Amino acid sequence: MNQPETQVELQGAAIPAGAAKRHGKRLAKIWMAAYACLIVAYVAHGLTGAEFMRLDALTEGRRLWRELYVELNGKPLEIDAGEAVSPATLRGLQSGATLAGGFTREGDAWRRAEKGPAAPSLFIALYKTDAFHGLPWRSILGLFNFAGLALLLYTLLGDPLPAFLRACSNAVRERLAAARAAQIEAAALQGRERELMAQLEAESVQAMEQAARDAGAEREYLVEAAKCEAEKMTVAMRRHLEADEKAAAAQLRAAVVRRVLEQARVRFAAGMEGEAQDRMIRAFVRQLEGMDRHD
């Protein structure tokens, strides 16, 4: 029974949930069928993968099925399984040197020759030259196993991993957008700060100029006020001195008058009568008073 598909909303697009699991199951079926075919081919090749050949019929380039141990010029030489026969190895094998790892036939059975001289009766196990000859079976099986592991991971993580990655990308995108907005706002604030600093500098320059002008005006005002006060004090002192001078002159004249009157009274006391003396004194006094008024 088919279950209704659920929809997952991611970035404004409706994505059916479980799509990776369904695709993984289909691919798993294909992978299992291919892997089974590979195992069958590998087993069939393994069962009939070796053929035996005499040393005198061995040619260059054939790949050894089993390892061989050859003694060449008194030195042991090991030839690994799967290695191709080189010209030097072929000459050494056919030179009659001591060899271990070959096979001898006893009826329908093959017996491993541990050690013995090379002879026409000694056979070498080689890979067959069929359709599967030369295939790197271990590498192929390793690749199939890796493909199976990747398929398993895709089936298990194909649905939640993209959603998680999209959520992470959305979060990163939102953080980047917030960072860009903050950067733009910081740039605007920095520009506003520069404008305010320029305005403040201009205002400070104007204030300094105005203060200089005010200080100059105040200095001029103080100088003028000092001059006016000095002139006033000079006039007042002059008037005061004049008043003192007049008072001193008046006092001096009064003293002189008193002195003159006393001397006149003394001089005229003897020769004048009292009335004539008084008239003369009054006339002299009036004359002096007239002089004072004239001054």
General description of the model:
There is one protein chain. The chain has 295 residues and is α+β, with helices and mostly antiparallel strands. The protein has a domain at 50-127. The protein is 64% helix and 15% strand. The chain has helices at 19-47, 87-93, 137-157, 160-271, 274-294, and strands at residues 7-10, 13-16, 50-54, 68-72, 75-79, 98-100, 102-106, 109-113, 116-117, 123-127. A hairpin with a 2-residue loop joins strand 1 (7-10) and strand 2. The protein is rod-shaped. The N and C termini lie far apart (149 Å).
Topology:
Blueprint lengths: L6 E4 L2 E4 L2 H29 L2 E5 L13 E5 L2 E5 L7 H7 L4 E3 L1 E5 L2 E5 L2 E2 L5 E5 L9 H21 L2 H112 L2 H21 L1
Antiparallel strand pairs: 1-2, 3-10, 4-5, 4-6, 6-9, 7-8
Helix pairs in contact: 1-3, 4-5
